[in-house]
From TrEMBL, chain A:
Subcellular location: Cell inner membrane
Highest taxon above the source species: Bacteria
Taxon lineage: Bacteria, Pseudomonadati, Pseudomonadota, Alphaproteobacteria, Hyphomicrobiales
Pfam families assigned: ABC_tran (PF00005), oligo_HPY (PF08352)
GO-annotated biological processes: peptide transport; transmembrane transport
InterPro entries in the record: AAA+_ATPase (IPR003593), ABC_transp_ATP-bind (IPR050319), ABC_transporter-like_ATP-bd (IPR003439), ABC_transporter-like_CS (IPR017871), Oligopep_ABC_C (IPR013563), P-loop_NTPase (IPR027417)
Biological source species: Aquabacter spiritensis
Annotated GO CC locations: plasma membrane
All copies of domain ABC transporter, residue ranges: 7-257
Name listed for the protein in its UniProt record: Oligopeptide transport system ATP-binding protein
GO terms of molecular function: ATP binding; ATP hydrolysis activity
Keywords from the named record: ATP-binding, Nucleotide-binding, Transport
Membrane topology recorded in Swiss-Prot or TrEMBL: Peripheral membrane protein
UniProtKB/TrEMBL annotation, chain B:
Lineage: Bacteria, Pseudomonadati, Pseudomonadota, Alphaproteobacteria, Hyphomicrobiales
Full protein name: Peptide/nickel transport system permease protein
Family: Belongs to the binding-protein-dependent transport system permease family.
PANTHER family: D,D-DIPEPTIDE TRANSPORT SYSTEM PERMEASE PROTEIN DDPC-RELATED, OLIGOPEPTIDE TRANSPORT SYSTEM PERMEASE PROTEIN APPC
Membrane spanning stretches: 89-114, 134-158, 251-272
GO terms under biological process: peptide transport; protein transport; transmembrane transport
Length: 340, 287
């Protein structure tokens, strides 16, 4: 298998509490043993609710947060513990688009200064061509003609325009992978579709691969080839998008699919009790056994004691649930099957 | 893509406009500018040398020959105030400038690095902050000698911890902002992150504080001079006041004019500082 980017058993733990000399009061298991692979030209979704560790995973992949254990590999080579120079080379290959376009552009820098920074640092174009290249980047993300925008400041743009600028910055170094952390969540629905279309176009033009971190299953379904579902720092299910939606094999995935709004009003589902209630448990003290058992509608005694093994299904679908084989009998999560 | 809307960006209101909108700040700015101009042009404006003795009869009040009167040695008070203002402003801006530069570097490193470096640097600033400032200034000047440069240095050393703590606090909140991570992902090294990304966003309160610090430094120097710890070879406003204290009741003009000069300078600096606060707040620009 030709994995472009690979994450192996990654763990990111944060000690909390404790002062200069005090002992930490606890450890947050933000990411707790995540493995995933990204193939060339693939769009991989990582989904899960707030606090499941998606963003920490993204930051660890980019080297913004040091992992506690595990490895991140690009083309089969580890990228952890790299020297500054090597880390810079890695970041030329792997870029990131951040969640909030109002936060991820320096308010004191012009668009040109923002775009020129990666170009200059990585020596992408000769100094004399910086402006031309920056304008070309803006045009590539749909801000055409680009030149008049270069000397403006971020506050002079709308959210969608800003996110286009952020995307322009991320493609400036001609990366191979872009990690998009909730890249469209902060945008209006109509703008969201435009940005997604843009990202899809860029994927084709530049041969990009995406890790698409989101909580929006609609985005996943329309854009992504494969899905990883995260819960409390672990991946509970992964597989090709159509299979995951057609037959979720983990009750958490099933609940997410069930909660996904239906685009067709005539097929509105019977209003049953929502399959999930309560909040995600504290990552300070993850529950023993299956982490989901405290909220799982089909949990049995074994779930509270035994961590579930990986169950493999046809088409590369993998679920971490003791009862994944019984998925078809669950009273929820069948919506995808009907719609597919 | 034609569906991308391209609204004309609102033209940012010029800094000068915002500043002028605040009447008192504008007035203070004019006063400060006038004082600076007068101080710079002292050699042209002053009728006599500041130290020249007996240029007129001793202790006469303001009249046509000596607008601010003369002191007990027959020196022209106007000339002395003009030159004194020059030295006082030099001390004020010099000390505040050095303190601000030092504070930015120390606070920036502490706030950006965090952890042990931060702890160490902050303990150092606390050492400076718990010692009574004026007392330490007296000790430093008494120890190193009362040259004008030593006084500037002493005041700067006393003042930088304030700026350092301010810069650190700004850096602590700014360093976790997404645009800093974005620059990091773009490959920017620590120096670029500190000075290119974070500092420009942290500068507004620093400039305001630095302006206020100029006034404080001038007062501190005046206080030192008044106690006789100033540089006796340089006429500063504090020194004039110190020399006039014995004749204050018989010749009010010898203390009133230098006192008014200090008062105007410090007050206008403070009001200008507050005005800058409005100008440098990026939100006030978008209106």
């Amino acid at each position: 298998m030709s994995a472009l980017l690979e994450v192996r058993d990654l763990k990111v733990h944060f000690p909390v509490g404790g002062g200069l000399f005090g002992k930490p009061a606890g450890v947050v298991h933000a990411v707790d043993g995540v493995s995933l692979t990204l193939a060339r030209n693939e769009i991989l979704a990582v989904v899960g609710e707030s606090g499941c560790g998606k963003s920490t995973l993204a930051r660890a992949v980019l080297g913004l947060t040091a992992p506690t254990a595990g490895d991140v590999l690009l083309d089969g080579e580890s990228v952890l513990g790299l020297s500054d120079v090597a880390l810079r080379r890695y970041r030329r290959a792997v870029q990131m688009v951040f969640q909030d376009p109002f936060e991820s552009l320096n308010p004191r820098k012009t668009v040109f200064a923002t775009l020129a920074q990666p170009l200059r640092i990585h020596g992408i174009v000769p100094m004399a061509d910086l402006r031309t290249e920056a304008a070309r980047l803006l045009e590539a993300v749909g801000l055409a003609p680009g030149a008049p925008y270069l000397d403006r400041y971020p506050h002079q743009f709308s959210g969608g325009q800003r996110q286009r600028i952020c995307i322009a910055r991320s493609i400036a170094v001609r990366p191979r992978v872009i990690v998009a952390d909730e890249a469209v969540s902060a945008l209006d629905i109509s703008i969201r579709a435009q940005i997604l279309a843009l990202m899809k176009t860029l994927q084709g033009e530049m041969g990009l691969s995406y890790v698409f971190i989101t909580h929006d299953l609609g985005v996943v379904r329309s854009l992504c080839d494969r899905v990883c579902v995260m819960y409390l720092g672990q991946i509970v299910e992964e597989g090709p998008t159509e299979r995951i939606f057609a037959q979720p094999r983990h009750p958490y995935t099933a609940a997410l699919v069930e909660a996904c709004p239906l685009p067709d009003p005539r097929r509105a589902r019977a209003k049953a009790a929502p399959p999930l209630s309560g909040d995600i448990p504290s990552p300070l003290k993850p529950p023993p056994g299956c982490r989901f058992h405290t909220r799982c509608p089909v949990a049995r005694p074994v779930c509270a004691t035994e961590p579930p093994p990986e169950r493999r299904f046809a088409g590369g679908q993998v679920a971490r649930c003791h009862f994944a084989e019984e998925a078809a009998t669950w009273p929820f999560g069948r919506l995808g099957a009907a719609a597919a | 893509m034609s569906m991308v809307d391209l609204p004309l960006a609102p033209r940012p209101v010029s800094a000068l406009r915002i500043f002028a909108r605040n009447r008192s700040a504008a007035l203070a700015g004019l006063v400060l500018a006038a004082l600076l101009l007068v101080a710079l042009a002292a050699p042209l404006l002053a009728p006599y040398a500041p130290g020249a003795i007996g240029v007129g009869p001793a202790m006469v009040g303001p009249d046509a020959a000596h607008l601010f009167g003369t002191d007990e040695l027959g020196r022209d008070v106007l000339s002395r105030v003009l030159y004194g203002l020059r030295i006082s402003l030099l001390v004020g801006f010099g000390a505040a400038g050095i303190a601000t530069a030092l504070g930015i570097v120390m606070g920036g490193i502490a706030g950006f690095s965090g952890g042990l470096v931060d702890d160490l640097l902050m303990r150092v600033t606390e050492v400076f902050q718990v010692i009574p400032r004026f007392f330490l200034a007296v000790v430093l000047v008494a120890f190193f000698g009362a040259s004008i440069w030593n006084i500037i240095g002493a005041i700067a050393i006393l003042s930088w911890p304030d700026i350092a703590r301010l810069v650190r606090a700004e850096f602590l909140t700014l360093r976790t902002r997404q645009f800093v991570d974005a620059a990091r992902v773009a490959g920017a090294p620590a120096g670029v992150l500190i000075f290119g990304e974070i500092l420009p966003n942290a500068l507004a309160p620093v400039v305001v504080n630095g302006t206020l610090m100029v006034g404080q430094a001038m007062l501190l120097e005046a206080g030192l001079s008044y106690l006789g710890l100033g540089d006796p070879s340089q006429v500063s406003l504090g020194l004039i006041l110190q020399e006039a204290q014995q004749i204050m009741r018989r010749a009010w003009w010898t203390t009133a004019f230098p006192g008014i000069a200090i008062f105007l300078a410090v007050l206008s600096l403070n009001v200008v500082g507050d005005g800058l606060n409005d100008v440098l707040n990026p939100r006030s620009r978008e209106r």
